[in-house]
Amino acid sequence: MVDEAFSSSRCAVVTDAGCDMAPELLEQLGVRCCSADPSADELAGIYRQLLEQGANEVVSVHGAAAFKAADKASCMVEGTVAAVDARFMSAGLALLVERSAHAAARGLSAAQIASLVDELSEAMEMYVVLDFRAPFQRTGSLVDRLSYLRRRALAVRCLMRHDAHGSTLLASSVDLTDLTGRVAHALGARARTEGALCYTNACNNAFDLYKLEKPFDTNEFVSHRLATFMPAPALAGYAGPSALAVAAVPERVFGGHETALFDAIQND
User: What is the pLDDT of residues 158-194, one digit of tens each?
Assistant: First the structure.
């Protein structure tokens, strides 16, 4: 069983529900999951429990919403706890958590895993196609509000690019094929300079998933899809109920697509 391979890990891994991996998958990886918006007390309790159960160290990998609580909680317990700002949610956080679990199983320390997550985050880019029903972000001018209402009325989707340093609006369209084609084009351009890519995606609709995957099959660059997830509520809360996400890193940074644990777990 895959989960048995992780039971002897000396460094425990913790994440939050902003990660797209299903609870069963996290459990098999030996990863503890807290709520999407945890308190420091909740996390400190998890850390203490893991240390009492025999973990020598804990690495806690989170998106921005949970990182502050994790950082505070790491100072509330006796023992080595490394809180890491993953700087991504959804499919991006899932990829980082899988690499953390893989590294823990290989015997890396919390500090080494934290450094690995930082390296992967720097190399990662995530593309999110926002559903036209994505909520207004509560900031902006009246013009921004009117523009949002217009996009919603016309069913216009937006394509956002996220990296470790921020977010950029790339395009808006009523045509999902146009937006997913732009994602494939952008990743193809990167693959031509950095080699094969490893990616995960999040999608809850089979037809949309087809439109997301088709450009990857028809564009001439090497990519390895590691897993497809049902989006966690955190993605829907940011980008709407039918949002799509693709998170990619160069294979040389990921560590080889054949080392990915998603397929082994899902086919166990």
Answer: 999 999 999 999 999 999 999 999 999 999 999 999 9
CB distance 15 to 93 below 8 Å: yes
Domains 2-121 and 125-257 share a fold: no
Taking each continuous run of H as one helix and of E as one strand, the counts in the chain are 12, 10
Q: Phi and psi dihedrals of 263, rounded to 5?
A: -65, -40
Q: Which residues contact 255 (CB under 8 A, 6 or more apart)?
A: 99, 102
Q: For the segment 5-31, what is each residue's pLDDT rounded down to a tens digit? A: 444 558 999 999 999 999 999 999 999
What H or E segment, with its residue span, contains residue 25?
A: helix 23-29
Beta strand pairing call for 157-163 and 125-130: antiparallel
CA distance 32 to 44: 13
What is the CATH code of the structural domain delimited by 2-121? 3.40.50.10170
Q: Quote the DSSP letter at residue 135.
A: P
Whole-angstrom distance between the N-terminal and C-terminal Cα of the chain?
7
**pLDDT for 68 beyond 60:** yes
Q: Quote the strand ranges of the chain, DSSP E.
A: 11-16, 31-34, 57-62, 80-85, 125-130, 157-163, 166-173, 197-202, 223-229, 244-250
CATH of domain 125-257: 3.30.1180.10
Tokens 């994440």 map to which residue?
15
How crowded is the C-beta side of 125, counted as CA atoms within 13 Å?
16
Domain boundaries, the chain: 2-121, 125-257
Q: What percent of the chain clears pLDDT 70, i.e. is strictly above it?
A: 87
